[in-house]
């Protein structure tokens, strides 16, 4: 890793804000996963128990990949069909429209609006072409995280990570150069000290997730081809100026480029096919 490139990136306050906010969200997601998995499992076990014809030990006959649960349904499997009917019964308006507003166990101590605010922040970070957010945005983000965590105040693993998130958001995150005096934001002042390799790993996780998000958007064609092209150009320009990141993200970029070129080729062939 070229340390000078990392230092130059962190000299941009808006980029550093982007990395800090993204890292806090990754920490929050990590401590939420176990809790959510446990609650969702209990929730769907409860749903299964409400289907008398199935019972809690119902087995699926749709094949090795078929599992009667919220993610996989095989139309030829009776267990899956009844599961689907039971779940949709809880999420269908009188006019037949499907909604998912109540798709959570009633025991969850969560205000959905506070969750939605944090999800919006996450989307703004992932969809930021320049990977920059203002200091004002970061302060607002900190308040939203505080309100979010307060909703989960009875979940120890979430409360435990919040103090670290607060420290990360308020620290300067100046990188300590070997052989030099520690700069503002190092351990003596805030209790947070990250080496250049640690900061770089955080950057890599965020950038990989961003590229994965772009890939999924391109795959599902959720963005116009011009939007994807613009985002790719911005990312390529960023990586050209940061060789240390470019080398490690080369495969991710190649994969995204390949998909984008494939879609461009398909779009260019469509008029000819229609004429034929």
Counting DSSP H or I runs of 4 or more residues, the number of helices is 11
Report strand %. Answer: under 5%
Name the overall outline. Answer: globular
Could you estimate the helical fraction of the residues in percent?
Answer: 55-70%
Low-confidence stretches: 59-71, 100-107, 180-191
Structural class: mainly alpha
Q: What order do the SSEs take from the amino end to the carboxyl end, as H and E?
A: HHHHHHHHHHH
Termini separation: 54 Å
In round numbers, the mean pLDDT is: 75
Write a structural description.
The termini are far apart. It is globular and about 50 Å long. α2 runs antiparallel to α6 (156-170), α8 (196-219) runs parallel beside α11 (250-275) and α9 runs antiparallel to α11 (250-275). Among the domains are: 8-37 and 108-177 and 184-193, no CATH class; 209-270, no CATH class. The protein contains eleven helices and no strands. With 276 residues, the protein is mostly helical. The protein has helices at residues 3-10, 13-49, 78-89, 112-126, 135-151, 156-170, 187-190, 196-219, 225-240, 243-248, 250-275. It is 65% helix and 0% strand.
Please describe the topology of this protein:
Layout: H1 3-10, H2 13-49, H3 78-89, H4 112-126, H5 135-151, H6 156-170, H7 187-190, H8 196-219, H9 225-240, H10 243-248, H11 250-275
Helix pairs in contact: 2-6, 2-8, 4-5, 5-6, 8-11, 9-11
């Amino acid at each position: 890793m070229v340390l000078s490139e990392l230092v130059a990136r962190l000299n941009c306050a808006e980029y550093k804000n982007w990395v800090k906010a993204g890292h806090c969200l990754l920490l929050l997601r990590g401590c939420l996963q176990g809790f959510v998995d446990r609650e969702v499992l209990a929730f769907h076990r409860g749903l299964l128990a409400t289907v008398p014809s199935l019972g809690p030990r119902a087995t699926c006959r749709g094949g090795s990949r078929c599992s009667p649960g919220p993610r996989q349904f095989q139309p030829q499997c009776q267990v899956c069909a009844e599961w689907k009917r039971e779940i949709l019964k809880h999420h269908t308006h009188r006019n037949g429209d499907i909604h998912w507003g109540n798709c959570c166990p009633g025991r969850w101590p969560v205000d959905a609006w506070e969750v939605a605010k944090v999800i919006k922040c996450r989307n703004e970070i992932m969809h930021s072409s320049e990977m920059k957010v203002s200091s004002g945005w970061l302060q607002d983000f900190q308040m939203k995280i505080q309100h979010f965590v307060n909703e989960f105040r009875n979940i120890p693993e979430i409360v435990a990570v919040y103090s670290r998130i607060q420290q990360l958001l308020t620290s300067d995150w100046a990188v300590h150069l070997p052989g030099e005096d520690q700069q503002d934001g190092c351990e003596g002042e805030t209790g947070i000290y990250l080496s250049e390799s640690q900061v770089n790993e955080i950057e890599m996780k965020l950038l990989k997730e961003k590229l994965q998000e772009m890939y999924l958007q391109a795959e599902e064609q959720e963005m116009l081809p011009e939007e994807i092209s613009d985002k790719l150009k911005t990312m390529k320009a960023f990586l050209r100026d940061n060789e240390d990141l470019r080398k490690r993200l080369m495969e991710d970029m190649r994969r995204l480029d390949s998909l984008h070129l494939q879609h461009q080729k398909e779009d260019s062939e469509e008029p000819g096919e229609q004429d034929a």
